[in-house]
Amino acid sequence: MFSPVNSIHLLILLALCDITWSFVPSPPLSRNSQRTFTPNTRSTRLRVLEDEKTDVENALKINDKDIVKSESEGLPWWWNLVWDLDMMSLGPPGTPMTLGDTANVFRTNIEQIYGDYPSKDNCPLAEGALDDLASGTMFIGLQRYFNSYSSPYKLCFGPKSFLVVSDPVQAKHVLLDANVNYDKGILAEILEEVMGQGLIPASPELWKVRRKQIVPGFHKAWLEHMVGVFSYCNQPLITKLNEMAENNERVDMEEKFCSVALDIIGKTVFNYDFGSVTKESPVIKAVYSALVETEHRSMTPAPYWKIPGANTVVPRLRKFRSNLKILDDTLNELIGIAKDTRQVEDIEELESRDYANVKDPSLLRFLVDMRGADIDNKQLRDDLMTMLIAGHETTAAVLTWALFELKRNPEEMKKVRDEIDEVIGDRMPNYEDIKKMLKVRLVIAETLRMYPEPPLLIRRCRTEDTLPKGHKDNSEGTVIRGMDMFLSVYNIHRSPRYWLEPDKFDPERFLRKFENPDVEGWRGFDPARWEGRLYPNEGSADFAYLPFGGGARKCVGDEFALLEATCTLAIILRRFDFDFDGQESEEKGGKYDDHPQGLDHPVGMRTGATIHTRKGLWMKVKKRDM
């Protein structure tokens, strides 16, 4: 929670920044009132001559304290004095951020941009427009900067900055080799009210405990049985699409994929029937409210919801709190039922269950049986809420873009359809069928490369660190403690440095090797590294493929989501044909320059937690001959 002490610190920090800006000269303007200066980059140096007088000789005496003058005329005389205040002291490495850590990052940016101080991080500095942060397609803006500045670069919005990393060698360092130096940072702050201390926002120390408790639930026997549950949950969608085909209705397939993904999460994780394909309920509305609020917060620069009293005053927050209570009450009821009917079994017995004959095969049941009756309800609630939000969003987005790309690439659609018809015929798929449907699995993998969910991974540095260089055009950046970082999965997945023809939809690329000697320390992509697995992962591309993150904090439900998407896509394509409907070509430029390149039927992209279409994936649906 945002304590009164933190509120006071925030106000002091904001006041300091406000005072500072009043002393900072505006960058020079051209005749057209456009900024023409080049921000300081890695080549910036202090303007100090060796034969100049010492700083002591130039010092001012105020209140018996020597105040060293700033090295630049652009900063006020008291600038260095501020940083001697006790509240501005830096926290120890590896500990949670202090006010001093946050202020130090602000200080670094202000001094570099306006004071002509040397760069402390050796990273090119890109001055960001606020639209790049607040727009619905921030990852597209970050790609444009990447093409100009390489990786890493620092994106500044006034005193606030983000270090943007777009290289697999650097990403591997942050996510795997030096992961103890980083936490989720602003992401944890954004998600705390919704997900509590669930796996995604949890601190590194708490995450270790939580992961050990949850990972056993995703064991092989359970995953194999879940494929049958996926098929069961798709039945209402089949019925609905049949009706719409008979009536020649338009259908927003993005919305339908969201509904079936929610139903699957409800049944597999909670043993709860949302029934969202066919009905609406307060619980379903509450789920979508949580999703919308999570996305809204992820794209909002100022966390106004943390201001004391905001939940009472702001209508949006009042509504959100009401919906969150509905979700909390529902989850607590389901947890209570599971605990009341707990069966005492050890982990070996749980993993060897005959799930085909278990009345409640849900993940909640497994976790309660494994952890015991004394398990904390709040802990379970946080874990389940995390899976509800994260699991539902990802699968729906992947299915939307997979159908979109297959319709744009009819030759790939034919390959997939032929395989589905041959393997499953008229029946529902099972786990063994999915193992045989290589082309469908490759389509899911390629969709995740082109439209990674999420397109950005967020980290914050806890202990000062140095990034490896990677590509020859990169810099070996220093990450100062407190610096927020965007790991741009989208940039890595769409860069010709790491993928051949990255904007081309080519599912079979995962069957071919790709290397680039210009990327020092990168082993390239090798299909042999995912031999024996159902899907390629970060190891097969040496961290140039990160659909579920990588390293210690990789998504625990990756295989679950991949199986769910593969099963659902096979079921739908076996039974239905689709044609684009209502997709109008947008005018070139303007706000619509973020379409995937070369679209014949642009739907546009926007992002929150995942990449969505702008206005839905509207299709005309027809029944196939079975």
From TrEMBL:
Q: What are the record keywords, sorted?
A: Heme, Iron, Metal-binding, Monooxygenase, Oxidoreductase, Signal
A Pfam family recorded for this sequence: p450
Q: Name one GO molecular function term.
A: heme binding
**InterPro entries cross-referenced by the UniProt entry:** Cyt_P450, Cyt_P450_CS, Cyt_P450_E_grp-I, Cyt_P450_sf, Cytochrome_P450_Monoox
Q: Which residues form the signal peptide?
A: 1-22
> Can you say what this protein is called?
Cytochrome P450
Region (Disordered) location: 586-606
What SUPFAM superfamilies does the annotation carry?
A: Cytochrome P450
| Record family assignment | Belongs to the cytochrome P450 family.
Binding of heme: at which residues? 555
Q: Where is the composition biased (Basic and acidic residues)?
A: 586-598
Cofactor field:
heme
